[in-house]
């Protein structure tokens, strides 16, 4: 085995997009989702990305005799949609799981911001997701990646408490300073939690710049890329390449040559001999941690700022976030499975992302992912849905009170007798 | 009569008012010719004869182009500005300008101009061309009318041209002024100039409220003697109240209109936040769109009331009636409102209304609640009272319904007839 490592992890997620939900629908219609858009988009991405890319990954694992290794984190929201609209995608992931060369990571079931809002909700979603992965792929997860790689010391402690010893996050420049992301670090307040940091330069070369013809490095070839990785990791241990799976065939179209690039990459890496492929859990066994990493304020992999402003940067987002999480306690009293499920989908971080008003540095990226014309429309729609949800919750809560009162009455009358 | 729009294709309340006026005048025995820039042909002509200015070519002018321009020389197609010039230079510029106008006019001479009749980017050009066509129409039909009546600034030039060319008296009708459109510091000076010229040239100025009359006298410097208020009315004939299914069980307080500075939307948001501190049993709706909408959405979010304060966006047709039917309280907190027909619509639907004292409607509605637009405490008080004291709500709904049904265009147009008689020699 080569002394240095490459750790490839792909994020698979599809939001549960909301339908146009007007004020006039509140209290009348509690179906919140745009099933047509969700099905259409999912089927399109499955054809363009998930199915061809999974087939390619399987082929590469077989042709390298298991030397090529990768990791996936698949959100529960995406898994639910695969099961409903494209079950063949689940089968292709099963085939990958069966090779033993693929690690599945844990995350929050609904790709949510629960780690910031509520410890109990976070726990609930992580456990729910872990069960789902085990049920579908027969593997138990051991490494954790939070929504959008959000991480802070406090979140790290929560994650460790849930039994994970490895976590993935961003090698954010303002946290790293002079330090290199190409090593294993540990949590500052929880030193037994190992951290893998995304090498954003090399990751974004593939994820964002690959098909950009005005990029001076275009076109990117596997050989060129291996040379870059070698120079980046001259004195370092590991290159962490973390990116959205939809990069392949969706964000970067097949005609850009992205599949050919991926097809050539493992061979080029293995022929060079400097690196071997590892999964996150293998990486922390192979390499020693070099230092603690202190992250007081949460970081993420999003936008130029690498912080939470893509989801919680303006007053609209703050308001929506507070209103949705304010219902957590009442929900746990009511404990209604249907409400739990809607509550989960309403927590998907994408809803908050659509309300983002940063148009300057990363406006293009935001526009690409946004089904709404303006953040204001996204907000209004979301709040209308939340209003209907509140009504349902309050009704269930009131019904529960009536039931409890009746039980109490009966108990009293029995006592009297 | 010069208008800009007429139902069924309307962008604002002006067309609806014009329809009420011609019908009311017909009932009072006054015949009207209604000129508009772009008629569609499906207008109701039972009470008036519609003349489509887009169908009229500027070719039957009996006088020469020079003469015509002499009379309507104030009309500029396009805009021109002279920053600074010495007297010699100035006279040269004026001469050049006049020659250009002759050229422009020659081009349009003998041609029809297809008006959009909308409020688009070339509005100023349309306004000027409308005046030229208007003058032609007035000359062609010189023997068919006694008085020229022009509605709002878009038609004032046409009214002036008609007056200049025929010598007939001009009545201009002020439905709104520049001061109701922008804030005091940001009025459109080009529009102000046209308005002022129209008012000065008019034999009589009709204003839709005393509030507007005050603006015409004080801000435009018009002789109070010739400014007369005739309050708007509303035509509810053929209107049946909708029955709609309610989704929310809380009471609903509604604002409906353009979300712009002069409609006072932010005072409504502040009042809503105050009411929500006392009772959760209410929802607020801001229906409509406008340049302040996004700011209002942020404002409500900042106050943390977005789950009780809803935005519907622009409502069309039946959705407007539906919104009224869903409402328990209607509010119009306008900072400046020449009249404001929406509370009348609300009261006709049986919805008690709160309106600002800075609206023309406040002068005629006795059973609406009236507050200063800035007095959010009073606004919150009234909202709360109407929500919590059913007797009060029922009383004002009943009285308001009767009151607005009594506001008829027949009465308003009888006053207009008197005004016409006073200017016809």
Features of the shown structure:
heterodimer, A: 417 residues, alpha/beta, five-stranded parallel beta sheet, 18 helices, B: 425 residues, six-stranded parallel beta sheet, four-stranded parallel beta sheet, 15 helices, globular
Short description:
The complex is a heterodimer of chains A (417) and B (425). Helix content of chain A is 51%, strand content 12%. Chain A has helices spanning 35-63, 76-85, 87-98, 114-117, 119-137, 153-161, 173-176, 200-207, 222-232, 258-272, 280-286, 309-312, 315-325, 328-334, 337-346, 349-353, 363-368, 375-416, and strands at residues 4-12, 70-74, 102-104, 143-145, 166-170, 184-187, 194-198, 238-244, 275-278, 289-293.
Query: Using only CA atoms, what is the Rg of chain A?
Result: 23 Å
* Mean pLDDT reading of chain B: 87
Unreliable parts of chain B? 76-83
**β content of chain B, as a range?**
5-15%
Task: Give the overall shape of chain A.
Answer: globular
Secondary-structure element series of chain B? HEEHHHEHEHHEHEEHEHEHEHEEHHH
Detail the poorly predicted runs of chain A: none
What structural class should be given to the helix and strand makeup of chain B? Answer: alpha/beta
Shape by Cα distribution of chain B: globular
Given helix and strand content, the structural type of chain A is alpha/beta
Question: Which range best describes the helical content of chain B: under 10%, 10-25%, 25-40%, 40-55%, 55-70% or over 70%?
Answer: 40-55%
Strand arrangement, largest sheet of chain B?
A: 9-8-7-10-11-12
Q: Let me know the largest β-sheet of chain A.
A: 5 strands, parallel
Gap from first CA to last CA of chain B: 18 Å
């Amino acid at each position: 085995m080569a002394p240095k490592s490459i750790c490839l992890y792909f994020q698979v997620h599809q939001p549960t997009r909301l339908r146009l939900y007007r004020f006039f629908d509140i209290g009348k219609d509690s179906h919140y989702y745009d099933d047509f858009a969700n099905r259409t988009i999912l089927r399109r991405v499955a054809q363009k990305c998930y199915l061809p890319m999974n087939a390619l990954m399987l082929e590469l694992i077989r042709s390298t005799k298991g030397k090529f290794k990768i990791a996936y984190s698949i959100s529960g929201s995406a898994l639910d949609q695969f099961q409903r609209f494209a079950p063949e995608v689940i089968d292709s992931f099963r085939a990958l799981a069966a090779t033993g060369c693929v690690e599945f990571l844990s995350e929050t079931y609904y790709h949510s911001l629960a780690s910031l809002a509520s410890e109990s909700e976070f726990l609930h979603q992580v456990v729910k997701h872990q069960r789902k992965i085990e049920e579908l792929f027969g593997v138990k997860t051991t490494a954790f990646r939070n929504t959008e790689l959000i991480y802070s010391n406090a979140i790290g402690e929560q994650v460790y408490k849930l039994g994970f010893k490895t976590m993935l996050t961003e090698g954010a420049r303002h946290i790293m300073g002079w330090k290199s992301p190409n090593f294993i670090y540990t949590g500052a307040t929880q030193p037994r939690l190992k951290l893998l940091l995304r090498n954003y330069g090399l990751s974004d070369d593939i994820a964002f710049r690959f098909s950009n013809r005005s990029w001076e490095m275009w076109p990117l070839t596997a050989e060129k890329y291996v040379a870059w990785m070698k120079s980046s990791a001259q004195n370092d241990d590991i290159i962490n390449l973390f990116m959205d799976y939809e990069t392949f065939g969706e964000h970067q179209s097949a005609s850009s040559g992205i599949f050919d690039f991926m097809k050539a990459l493992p061979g080029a890496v293995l022929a060079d001999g400097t690196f071997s492929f590892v999964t996150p859990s293998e990486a922390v066994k192979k390499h020693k941690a070099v230092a603690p990493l202190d992250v007081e304020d949460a970081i993420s992999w999003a936008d130029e700022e690498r912080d939470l402003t893509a989801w919680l940067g303006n007053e609209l987002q703050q308001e929506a976030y507070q209103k949705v999480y304010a219902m957590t306690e009442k929900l746990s009293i009511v404990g209604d499975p249907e409400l739990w499920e809607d509550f989960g989908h309403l927590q998907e971080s994408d809803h908050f992302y659509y309300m983002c008003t940063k148009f300057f540095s990363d406006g293009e990226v935001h526009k690409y992912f946004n089904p709404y014309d303006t953040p204001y429309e996204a907000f209004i729609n979301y709040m209308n849905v939340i209003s209907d949800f509140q009504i349902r919750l309050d009704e269930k809560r009131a019904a529960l009170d009536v039931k409890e009162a009746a039980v109490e009455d009966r108990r009293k009358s029995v006592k009297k007798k | 009569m010069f208008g800009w729009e007429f139902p069924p294709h309307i962008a604002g309340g002006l067309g609806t008012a014009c329809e009420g006026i011609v019908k009311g005048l017909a009932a009072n025995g006054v015949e009207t010719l209604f000129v508009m820039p772009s008629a569609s042909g499906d207008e109701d002509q039972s009470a008036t004869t519609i003349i489509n200015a887009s169908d009229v070519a500027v070719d039957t002018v009996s006088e020469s182009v020079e003469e015509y321009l002499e009379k309507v020389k104030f009309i500029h197609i396009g805009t021109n500005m002279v920053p600074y010039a010495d007297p010699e230079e100035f006279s040269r510029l004026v001469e050049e300008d006049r020659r250009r106008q002759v050229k422009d006019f020659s081009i349009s001479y003998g041609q029809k101009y297809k008006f959009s009749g909308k409020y688009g980017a070339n509005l100023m050009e349309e306004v000027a061309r409308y005046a030229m066509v208007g003058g032609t129409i007035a000359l062609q039909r010189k023997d068919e009318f006694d008085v020229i009546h022009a509605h709002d600034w878009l038609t004032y030039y046409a009214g002036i041209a008609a007056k200049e060319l025929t010598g007939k008296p001009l009545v201009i009708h002020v439905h709104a002024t520049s001061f109701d459109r922008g804030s005091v510091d940001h009025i459109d000076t080009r529009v102000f100039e046209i308005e002022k010229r129209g008012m000065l040239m008019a034999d009589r100025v009709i204003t839709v409220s005393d509030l507007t009359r005050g603006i015409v006298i004080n801000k435009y410097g018009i002789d109070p003697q010739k400014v007369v208020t005739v309050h708007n009315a509303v035509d509810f004939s053929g209107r049946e109240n909708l029955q709609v299914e309610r989704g929310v069980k809380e009471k609903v307080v509604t604002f409906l209109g353009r979300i712009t500075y002069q409609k006072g939307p932010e005072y409504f948001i502040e009042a809503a936040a105050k009411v929500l501190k006392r009772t959760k049993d209410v929802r607020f709706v801001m229906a409509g769109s406008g340049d302040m909408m996004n700011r209002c959405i942020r404002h409500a979010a900042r106050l943390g009331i977005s789950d009780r304060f809803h935005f519907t966006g622009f409502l069309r047709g039946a959705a407007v009636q539906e919104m009224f039917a869903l409402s328990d309280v209607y509010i119009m907190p306008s900072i400046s409102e020449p009249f404001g027909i929406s509370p009348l619509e609300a009261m006709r639907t049986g919805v008690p209304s709160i309106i600002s004292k800075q609206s023309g409607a406040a002068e005629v509605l006795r059973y609406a609640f009236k507050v200063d637009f800035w007095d959010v405490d009073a606004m919150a008080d009234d909202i709360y009272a109407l929500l919590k004291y059913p007797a009060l709500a029922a009383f004002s709904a009943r009285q308001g319904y009767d009151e607005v049904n009594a506001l008829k265009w027949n009465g308003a147009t009888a006053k207009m007839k008197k005004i016409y008689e006073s200017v016809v020699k």
